[in-house]
Amino acid sequence: MTETANPNKALWEKGDFGRVADSMRLSGEALVARLGVTPGMKVLDLGCGDGTTALPVARLGADVLGVDIASNLVAAGNRRAGAEGLTNCRFKEGDASHLDDLADDTFDLVVSIFGAMFAPRPFDVAKEMVRVTRPGGRIVMGNWIPNDPTLVAQILKISSSYSAPPPEGFISPMTWGVEDNVTERFGEAGVAADKINFSRETYTFDYPAPPAELLAVFREYYGPTMNAFAAAEASGRTEELQEDLADLFTSQNTSPNADATSIPATFLQVTVTV
Length: 274
Ligand SMILES: C[S@@+](CC[C@H](N)C(=O)[O-])C[C@H]1O[C@@H](n2cnc3c(N)ncnc32)[C@H](O)[C@@H]1O
Prior knowledge:
Blueprint: H1 7-13, H2 17-21, H3 25-33, E1 42-46, H4 54-59, E2 63-68, H5 71-83, E3 89-93, E4 107-113, H6 122-132, E5 133-144, H7 151-162, H8 179-188, E6 196-207, H9 211-221, H10 223-234, H11 238-252, E7 261-273
Parallel strand pairs: 1-2, 1-4, 2-3, 4-5
Antiparallel strand pairs: 5-7, 6-7
Helix pairs in contact: 7-10, 7-11, 9-10, 9-11, 10-11
């Protein structure tokens, strides 16, 4: 199989997710501050992108491995860690559905913020996360919630209404935002329901320009939005999609400053004790 034959990989190597992630850095740091990271802790950041959470974890002295399917984001993560002199943080390519070269019981903490949810075969993903976490360790996932009224769920919902239906058997990443699905998947991986904790948390997208400019970043650099615009263009609906998304970004903006954007988005935080 060639690299481009993997649509999951191709989607995230498209554009440059790092440009979107630049608007998510503060929330990444705030989330990490709540994780109880201590120096020397062994941490895996799965679906790490260019390190929005991996870098703050490393700044706290943990030994961090970031794994991501997109080679451009792995390279960007290694560049960002290198620029900060974080020798305790490295990034490498891998697939959350089969973490072949990671040994059992390796990590104290596995973090996956809007990362592993996008991998195919969710039952395999849950098994792999449990397998590489040491007994007594934790898994923390951040997952977008289907039909939630806030930004990302709505971007993905609007985008899918302009795109061809997914192939038969496709399991939506958004199903990771449904508690029963999460419990079932970790249950199959051997985790009892009472070891899984759920909470609703907020990530805020901050951008130093009006909402239309943040939308332009999504349109140019965010794989799922790029694909939606390609599909809309093919059906002559580009303007309609642009308007739908512009309305969304503008209506969700809470910044009192006309030259800035601040959009809070709700997600499901899942904490699993292995
Ligand atoms: C929305 S981005 C989030 C990135 C990062 N966690 C953050 O908070 O900025 C989703 C990430 O999941 C990665 N990803 C998607 N499918 C994956 C898979 N099968 N295995 C590993 N990473 C994957 C993408 O390449 C992308 O970096």
